[in-house]
Amino acid sequence: MSRRCDLTGKSALVGHKVSHSNRKTKRRFLPNLLNVTVISDALARSVKLRISANALKSVDHRGGLDAYLLAAKSEVLAPRLRTLKKEIEKKLAKAS
Fold first, then answer.
1. Taking the chain (96 residues) in consecutive chunks of 10 residues, what is each chunk's mean pLDDT?
2. 53 in the Ramachandran plot: left (φ > 0), alpha (ψ -120 to 50) or beta?
3. For residues 18 and 20, what is the distance between their CA atoms, to the nearest angstrom?
4. Domain 13-95 of CATH type 3.40.50.970
5. Distance between CA 17 and CA 28 in Å, rounded?
6. Cα end-to-end distance, the chain, whole Å
7. What are phi and psi of 54, to 5 degrees?
8. Taking Cα atoms as reference points, which of 85, 35, 83 lies closest to residue 55?
9. Helix or strand holding residue 50 (H, E)
């Protein structure tokens, strides 16, 4: 399981830990990933995701998982969420 957010694509970054004497050693900056169950209103089911805390705040701000996925670019999303986005678009198109 990679350390990558399913929604935003955030992953580990590499940088330096700098000591007081200005000595530099490699370190990794890991994203704050959470295992979350989010409900899709259009599909009326829950989806388990591994997303960053920042993405969770963004989902709440945009008004739920469906609204977030419809506004998100498909290139950033995980393959599993791309198919979920297509299912939501089909369901909403059928309802209209």
1. 89 97 97 96 95 96 95 92 95 88
2. alpha
3. 7
4. no
5. 9
6. 38
7. -65, -40
8. 35
9. strand 45-52
